[in-house]
Structures are given as C-alpha cells and as structure tokens.
Amino acid sequence: MELTVRPRLRRLLAYAAGAVALVVLVLALLPGHGSSSTASLDHRTQDVAGRLRCPTCVAESAADSTSPVAESMRSEIRRQLAAGRSEDQVVAWFRTRYGSDIVLDPQRQGLGWVLWAAPPLAALAVVAGAAGVVVVRRRRTGDPQGQREEPDRPDPAVEAASALPVGRLAVVLAVTVAAAVAVPLLVRHGSADQASADQATAEQSASGSSGSSGSSGSASASPSVGSASGGSADPVATAFALLRAGHAGAAETLVRPVSRRAGPDRAMALLVLGLAQRAEGEPAAARTLRSFVDRYPHHPAAEEVRRLLAAS
Amino acid sequence: MSRWAQALRPLGWGRTIRLRLLLGIVGVVALLVVADLLGALRGGAADGTGTSPLVGRRAPTLSGTTLTGAHYRWRPGTVTVVNIWASWCGPCRDELPLIARFAQTWQQRGVRVVTVDSRDGVDPAKAFLGDVGARDLLAVHDPDGRLAVSWGATGIPETFVVDAHGVIRAHQIGEVDAAWLTDEVSAWS
Questions:
Q1: Is the ipTM of this complex over 0.85?
Q2: What are A191-242's pLDDT values in tens digits?
Q3: Interchain CB contacts (distance < 8 Å): A and B
Q4: DSSP letters along chain A, please?
Q5: pTM, to two decimals
Q6: Which residue of chain A is at minimal alpha-carbon distance from B152?
C-alpha cells in the first residue's frame, strides 16, 4: 500500500508545483491590462483611466472620480485612444506630465518589484512547505521500516532527493517573510507621498470648487474638513463623500443634525446640507445656503455659494 | 515553529537552518528599511514648489481658439508666463488682475503672458475678465480641460514660466504673487 501511495503523492506534488509555476509565469508574462482591439472606446478609456490616479483625490482613480481634473483626463485619454495611440502610450504620456505617482500599477523597478514578486513567492512557499511536510513525515514514519519497504532503492539518493526541498524551503520562506515586511513599508511610503500631495492640492481647491461640484476630490481635500478627516466617523466628511457619490438624500439625513447645533463643524454641515438639498431639487436649498453665507461670510466657499445663489 | 524544528531535526538541518533563516531575514529586512529611509529622504528633498515633473523639460504645445474667437498657437522665442484659470475659480478673481498688470508691465521687455481658460464657458469667462479688469488678457479657451491636463495641471489656478527656448522653468500650484512672477521671470529673461 505505502509503496504505491508515496510515489503517487510525490508525483502529485511535483505536478502541483509545476502547475503553480506555470500559472505564475503566464500571469507574469501577460500584459496586465491588455485589451482586445474589439473593446469599445468607452471601455478602453475607462481601462486606461483606471490605471491612473486622480491627482486631486484621495485613493481614487481617474476612472472613478468626478473631479474636473479626472473628467479632463478621461476626455484626453479618449481623444488619444481614438487617434490610435496604444493604452501604454497614453499612460506614458500622463507619466511624463504628472510623474510616476500618477500610475496606479506599482512599478516593476526599484522596491516596487517586491510587490510583484510577493504573490508568486508566497505560492512557491506554500508548495515548498507542503513538499517539506510530506518529505519529513515520510522520513519520520519511514525510517524504522524504510529498508523493509524499499529494499531496492539506494538510500543516499533518497536522502539527497528529500533533503533538497527543505533547503529550498528555508530560502523561499526567508524571502517571503522579508517580502511580507516590505509590502507594508512600501504601502506606508506610498500613502505618505499621497498625503503630502493631497495637502498641497487642498490649498488650491480652498475656495474655487469645494462646494459647487465636489471637485476637490473627497471630503479630506476640503480645507474645513481636512483637519478632522482622519477619522471616518466624522459625519460631515462622510456626508460630503456621499454627496459627491450622488447620494444626496443620505448625505442630507446624515448632516442635518450636525447643521442644527453650534460647533466647529457647523459651517461645513450647513454647506453640505444646502448642496444636498439643491441636488435633491428641494426649495429649502436656497434658504440653507443663504443661512450658510450669512453666518459664515468669510468661509472659503462663501463667495462661490453667493454666486450660486445669484445665478439661480 | 517548534513542530517544524522537531520535524527538521532528524534531517540534521535544525539549528543551522534556523540560524541562517533568521540571519537572512534580518539582513533582508534591514536592507529594505535602509532603502525605505533613503527613499523617504530623497522624496522629502524633492518636495517643494517646483512640483511638476515638466519643470526642466520642453513645454507641451499650447494652441487653440481664444475667447475672442481667434486661433492662437504659442511658439517659443521669448520668456512666457502661462496661467491657467477659470471664471468659477475663487482665487483667480484676485490673481488675474495681477497677471494682467504683469503682462502690461513686462510686454516691453519681451515677456509674453498666455492664459488658459479651463473648463469654462466663453460667456462667463468674458464677463469675468471684464469684472476683474483684465479684458485684454490673451486667453486660450480650453472647454474640456485637456489643455490644462497636457500641461500636467491638477487644479486651478496654476502658473508656469517657460524660458525663451521653450523649457518650463518654474511651476506654481495655486495663486502666485507679484514677487514670485518677477523673480522667476527675471531669472530666465
């Protein structure tokens, strides 16, 4: 019995390892975002926009964001694709203008390679680990009776064959653990860069557009919420995000209690409430916005709201 | 871990392999930490006002229809200030009069000022220029913001200084002041 099971197990493991290696290779060689020539222009535009970061947003791609710069980016992507440029060429065009941070794919250079190498290495570690366990179990149970069961096999060869995966396993494990440490390091680094960029853009979006079209990207890019945006429990920031995402009704419900009580958040709460009501087409919108302007005449968004009121 | 160690001991790998593994991991992690710190230092040094990667490179093309309906195509040759604005942008209301005054003052010295009216309607943009007393400013209309994106702009306002050879020399996100304009333009003219 044992004689027939063990070789089969080993063969199975070998096949499994081979299969994993093949899958990893194929995935690595495949162009990540390759699309067929038949894909529609809309689809390809979204595809490229999804590979680019919206420069004024927090963790949003140019495909998802409703900010003006993201809209302009999509329009430019579309024009270039229609003109026959490849998706990679378009991404490269943006990289020269906005720097490599604009690209959402981790780069296959510098420390970025660790991000690419980690998943296949982890898969290899699992396979090697499984092989190690099987070999060790085999040797532990097989040692006392090994001679009886496999009399015709030369022992040193078996020893060498079974010892090798353990050595490899150690190396693979070490690299995998190191990669596991490196990934958080890289991610932290990336988010720090983004935070500083967001801070820079928050200033410029200070008065222009934070209210009217939600162009400042997200709640934390708006100056008045910026300081408090660390916690996601901030109802005003959440309401602002909801409003931007097109859920004006939910934003209104969430922000209404805050807009009624005095506090540092009240200005922003009134503004979000007014804009949400406006989006819902409620007549109360003008009243709310007017009370915002009256109460906070020097708010960075006050001038825009005044213009909005004058226009409507 | 102890189960692993126990399992590996009969093979004669126990202690050495654990030691090597540990040393290997410590070494790799130390390397990564050092690399991360170096990267952070380099990134920190790169931060500043000249945020655009286009600084030091050739300026993208700048052409289109102006707010007055004429066709305009910018060509290098003299120092040029490129300002991106919109009528819906609050800071632009303060900045554009300054840009217009600067354009007038520096015209005799061969400095050009080209503005890009981005994501804006022609009528509100014209009314806005009238409001702020900058009716004579050359403004290329950029209705869908593609011109601004081709210059690597992230928002409005943004200002670039391009030297006579067509290389971008300075970039400012947000409002500029007279001192910034004078310093940057003087440095390249």
A1: no
A2: 444 444 444 343 333 333 333 333 333 333 333 333 333 445 688 888 888 8
A3: 143
A4: -HHHHHHHHHHHHHHHHHHHHHHHHHHHHS-TT---TTS-HHHHHHHHHHTBB-TTSSS-BTTT--SHHHHHHHHHHHHHHHTT--HHHHHHHHHHHH-GGGB-SPPSSTTHHHHHHHHHHHHHHHHHHHHHHHHHHHHHHHHHHHHHH-TTS-HHHHHHHHHHHHHHHHHHHHHHHHHHHHHHHHHHHHHHHHHHHHHHHHHHTTTTTTTTT-TTSSGGGSHHHHTTTTSTT-HHHHHHHHHHTT-HHHHHHHHHHHHHS-STTHHHHHHHHHHHHHHHT-THHHHHHHHHHHH-TTSTTHHHHHHHHHH-
A5: 0.52
A6: A97
